[in-house]
């Protein structure tokens, strides 16, 4: 849909003046009338949900910043004051805290949808890459925000993560000193983290604009995974508005119901109890863990016995997503027509959840309590450490080995020629091109 012509016509003098100087209204109108594949399912509604989450996070974050004090002696108390003394402060704080979890739930589902349907393939590589940049910025923003309440998990989480940066040869130590503002985590660190946490959401918003721009240029992917030629646009597409604005709106309402359930009935369910204890540099928690949405990457970090190797593996787990368009060698986009790869994808999703579960456990705890453990190299065979290593191996195997090899050797199922033909019967094909007989 990169050749979609503008249909916007300015009607008033003010609109014409604006359009000739900053055609932002034209961009919005053209996006609403963008030809969109008519077979998009509800997995495509998470883009709108993510946009709403970003708006909620920015709005609540700005309000919280008006009352928060980035000082190690006052930060924890200022958060409690927001909860107790600021009008609606508890609602704003819980919305912001749970909004981060909702944001990551939506982004993980959004990325898995793109992975399953091959939305990263040409000509949409730039859409995927910008999305990966947004994901990385979200992780950085979430980590910085996790430190701000200055509870036990906040302080010790910052201690662990910043120490990892120091493990990088040559440049690690200078970067660590700059990030902390000194040799140890203190007031300067909290001020830096607060400033960056406030700034990055607006950087994310700018990247979202680029993401939408790239999407507007390349056009939407679809569950079938086929490109729509210009002569088929009238048959295979419909305007984005009102068809998909209504569909997105319905999905957003359902998502907000779940969001509200956590905010009003389980506001602390996704947090860690130790973070409601003021930070104490002299008392280390029994188990230091990040928020749930970072647990898979934390597990990968712990899976590698070498400290620097763990840092490399953790960042590689995110970095491999950036080169995904060139790792997948299959000419078929959608895994709907790739049964072998679909099986490996389902295993990959289970592995991701397994990594999250392992990341929340003590590494030396037994997977099967009471079962004898056998020492192998530097760990116990019946421990979460070795289970984590197996899951980590599959994570990288999926991207670096399975995707290239399966794409070359797999025989995909027959792909429909168009979006409409699989469901609409014709004279020559009364069953429809998408019938089970033709799909094999």
From TrEMBL:
Recorded GO MF terms: metal ion binding; oxidoreductase activity; quinol-cytochrome-c reductase activity
InterPro entries, A to Z? Cyt_b/b6_C (IPR005798), Cyt_b/b6_C_sf (IPR036150), Cyt_b/b6_N (IPR005797), Cytb/b6-like_sf (IPR027387), Cytochrome_b (IPR030689), Cytochrome_b_C_euk/bac (IPR048260), Cytochrome_b_N_euk/bac (IPR048259), Di-haem_cyt_TM (IPR016174)
Which annotated residues bind a ubiquinone?
216
Domain (Cytochrome b/b6 N-terminal region profile): give its ranges: 14-224
Membrane topology per the entry is: Multi-pass membrane protein
Positions of transmembrane segments: 42-70, 91-111, 126-148, 160-179, 199-219, 240-264, 308-327, 339-363, 383-406
What GO cellular component entries does it have?
respiratory chain complex III
| PANTHER family found in the cross-reference section | CYTOCHROME B
Role this protein plays = Component of the ubiquinol-cytochrome c reductase complex (complex III or cytochrome b-c1 complex), which is a respiratory chain that generates an electrochemical potential coupled to ATP synthesis.
Indicate what this protein is called per its UniProt record.
Answer: Cytochrome b
